[in-house]
Amino acid sequence: MTKITVDNATLEKLHNLDTRLELCDASGKTLGFFHPAADSRARVSRTGPSPYSNEELQERRKQRTGDTLDNVLRRLSEK
């Protein structure tokens, strides 16, 4: 993931990042959408507490299952 540091002037244009935004270029073409971290946390907290403990979540993050990206792309290109 690319990380960009936002200066104060840009932050002002983005309304302090307190709501979801649609980012467009000068012609009006949509570049993408931005969901502020505070907004994401609010959505998660509204769904209730996680049924998993922090320890269980950490263990699940360590588990790597599935296929590698190279293998997936190879299979897709064969079709």
Strand % is 5-15%
**Residue-averaged pLDDT, rounded?**
82
Largest sheet, in brief, is:
2 strands, antiparallel
Number of helices: 4
- Which oligomerization state do the chains in this entry correspond to? single chain
Low-confidence segments, ≥5 residues, pLDDT <50?
Answer: none
- Structurally, how many domains make up the residues? 1
Category by helix and strand content: alpha+beta
What is the overall silhouette?
flat
Query: What is the H-and-E element order?
Result: HEEHHH
Structure, described:
This protein is of the alpha+beta class. The protein has one domain. It has 4 helices and 2 strands, in the order αββααα. Strands 1-2 form a two-stranded antiparallel ribbon. A hairpin with a 5-residue loop joins strand 1 and strand 2. The radius of gyration is 19 Å and the shape is flat.
Question: Would you spell out the secondary-structure blueprint of this structure?
Answer:
Layout: H1 8-13, E1 21-24, E2 30-34, H2 37-46, H3 54-62, H4 69-78
Antiparallel strand pairs: 1-2
